Amino acid sequence: MAKAENTQAIKKENGFCACDFAKEFLSVNFPEYNSPHFTVIPGFCDVHVHFREPGFLYKESILSGSMSAARGGYTDVCTMPNLNPVPDSAENLELQLKAIKETAKIRVHPYGAITVGQKGEQLADLEAMAEKVIAFSDDGRGVQSAEMMRSAMIKAKALGKIIVAHCEDNSLLNGGYIHKGEYALKHGHKGICSESEYLPIARDIELVKQTGCAYHVCHISTKESVDIIRKAKSEGVNITCETAPHYLIMDDSFLKEDGRFKMNPPLRAKEDRLALIEGIKDGTIDIIATDHAPHSLEEKSKGLEGSAFGIVGLETAFAALYTYLVKTGVITLEKLIELMAQNPRKRFNIPFSNDFSVWNLNKEYTVNPDEFLSKGRSTPFEGMRLTGECVLTVSNGKVVYKL
C-alpha cells in the first residue's frame, strides 16, 4: 500500500494521475497528513447511487448525497433516474442538472432513463439527453420487454452510450422481498428467486450480441449471474458488471427482522457470496458500487416485509471492504482501488481531476449511522467494527471533506 510520502507508488500501481499533485498539496496545506500514518488513495468513483433529487428530498438531496460521498472518499458518482420527474427528456433532466450545478460538492453524473417514466412502454428521448448523461438506465425497474431493450440498445449504440441494466423479471417475483433461501423458509417470509436476476441477464446478453451495444449489469447478487457474465466475457461480449459491498460481506445468514437488511436484490446464500468474491478476484466483476439508496426512518422501520428496499453505503463502503476483504487477505488494497476507482472510470470514461483521499488505515471504530452526512440512516453495517477512516477528500484540487 502507498503512504502519503510515497505517492509515486500509487501512480505505478494504480494509474493515479494526480499523485504528484497530492504530494505537493499535502505538503503545502496539510503537512500533518504527509506521514507514514496516513495513506493516499485515488478518489473513488461510484457508478450507482440514488440522490433522490428532484422529487424525494426528504430521503436525500444532491447536497447531502454528495457530502456523504465525499466523506467516503468518493470524488465522482453517477445518479440513477428513479426520480420525480424521471429524467426521460432534456426538459426533465434539466431540473437535476440545475441542482447538481448549484449544490454538488463533488462531480455528479446523472443517468438518463431508458423508457418514459421508467414504465417500459415507450423509449425515452435518448438522443436529446445523450450529451448530458453518463449512460442510460431504468434502475429500480427491469425493462421487461426484450423488444424494448433491443430498441434501446440500438439507439444507445448509435449515440455511443452504455445501457446500464437493472435485471429483474417481474413475473418471477411473486411478492418476494428477501432471498428465497433458508432464512425465508425458516421465518415464513416470501422469497425472491435467483432466476429473477440471472434470466434477464442471459436475455440481454443475446441482445448485446445482436446489437453490439455496450452493456453494464447493475448489482449482481447470484452465482449464476457470475457464471453467465464470465462466459459472455470469454466470448468477447461488450459487457461489464458491478456488485455491492454488502453482497461480498454478508449473506442471508446475516438477516435480522429489521428493515436495514432489506435491499434489492436481496442478500443471497453463502454460495452466492463466495461466487461473487471469486468474480472480483478473477475479473468477471469489474466494479464495486454501493447502490446507495436512502429512505426515511419511517420507511425503513417496518421490518423485512413492510420496509422500503434500499440501504445507504457511501460512508461505509471502503472501510467495510478493507476490513473484511483486504485485512483478511482475500484481495489486495491495490485490487480494491482498481474496483472502486480505476475500473469505473475506465468503463464510463470518467477521468481523474486532481482527486484523492487520505485515510488512516489503522483507525478502528463502530459504525454509528447518527454520524452519517447522508439523510439515510439504514445500513446493515450498523454497530459493526470497521477499520479505515477517511480524514480528507480532495476533488478538482479542492477540499470537499475534512474530518
β-strand amount: 15-25%
Q: Distance between termini? A: 22 Å
CATH class: Alpha Beta
Secondary structural class:
alpha/beta
User: How many β-strand stretches?
Assistant: 14
Q: Note poorly predicted spans.
A: 1-17
What is the gyration radius calculated from CA atoms? 20 Å
| Tally of helical segments | 14
User: Mind telling me which CATH architecture this is?
Assistant: Alpha-Beta Barrel
Shape: globular
Give a quick account of the main beta sheet: strands, pairing sense, barrel closure: 5 strands, parallel
Helix content estimate? 25-40%
* Topology order in helix (H) and strand (E) letters: HHEEHEHEHEHEEHEHEHEHHEHHHEEE
The count of domains is 1
Please tell me the overall pLDDT: 95
CATH homology superfamily = Metal-dependent hydrolases
Largest beta sheet: what is the strand line-up?
A: 5-6-9-10-11
- The CATH topology annotation reads as TIM Barrel
Could you give the topology of this structure?
Blueprint: H1 7-14, H2 19-29, E1 39-42, E2 44-49, H3 62-71, E3 74-79, H4 90-103, E4 107-110, H5 126-129, E5 136-137, H6 146-159, E6 163-165, E7 178-179, H7 182-187, E8 191-192, H8 195-211, E9 215-217, H9 223-234, E10 239-243, H10 245-249, H11 270-282, E11 287-288, H12 303-306, H13 317-326, H14 333-348, E12 356-366, E13 385-395, E14 398-402
Parallel strand pairs: 2-3, 3-4, 5-6, 6-9, 7-8, 9-10, 10-11
Antiparallel strand pairs: 1-12, 12-13, 13-14
Helix pairs in contact: 1-2, 6-8, 8-9, 9-11
